[in-house]
Amino acid sequence: MFERILVPTDGSGPANAALEYAGEIAAAENLTVHILHVVDPDADPAERTEPLSDGREWAGETGAPVIDEVHTGEPEDAILEYAATHDVDAIVMGTRGRRGVGRLLLGSVTEAVVRDAPVPVLVVRGAPEVKREYPLKTIVVPIDGSTHADAAFEEALSIANHHDATVHLLSVVDVAPVGIDEENDFRLEQLEQYAQQVLEDGITQAESAGVDAVSAVEHGSAHRRIRDYTDDVDADLVVMGTHGRRGLDRLLLGSVTERVLRTATVPVLTVRAADEE
């Protein structure tokens, strides 16, 4: 598990949701919480202090060690630089931030951080339908055999071991991205066989790690099936790679990850493969 987590904040609802969830994790795991507020150099002084004060209140209630700072500059650059220079293990972010002049970070910034961060990024939507529970009992891991999906799976196994949680391995056969007609039985069968093999390998790996795991193959739009399956099994967390395969065996991930981040009803942990950092 993590020891130091970074929570960027702009005082928006999603940012506060991320702070609250980070606080729950910190309280349970005795983590250090780094709260970062990134502002425009020309911002009003009140904009520099109010969100940070709110962040202290959210995290301070947990009793966890809290380090808070205000930085100026471009949000994505400031977040990534802070994560690298303070040796944090993960970044916890909301999915949307302020709009208009006051919009300082999150939203598209979150997606940019997900793509570029060398550490896992835990994305929390601030919508009322989002379930945020900790400790974790059920974890969904979409896999497609890509290096990013494999890295996400390894992270999920570590988390599952820590929580004694069950991992649900999900492979989505989505024919639309590769232009396969659903009536083309041969090519569809190839995709299904590949998906099943990926799942079988994953179950074997989970068993070797001492983690309870189940598997499922779903058909249709990848991000929708991930969201629906997550709801069906009442999951607490989705763990995904940031990119996926291309061509015939491209089953999910990549742009699908971004769509899941915008619609998921539970927090989503994104993981990059080490050779892509």
From TrEMBL:
This is Universal stress protein. PANTHER family: STRESS RESPONSE PROTEIN NHAX (PTHR46268), UNIVERSAL STRESS PROTEIN UP12 (PTHR46268:SF6). Residues 1-125, 137-272 form the UspA domain. InterPro entries: Rossmann-like_a/b/a_fold, Universal_stress_UspA, UspA. Belongs to the universal stress protein A family.
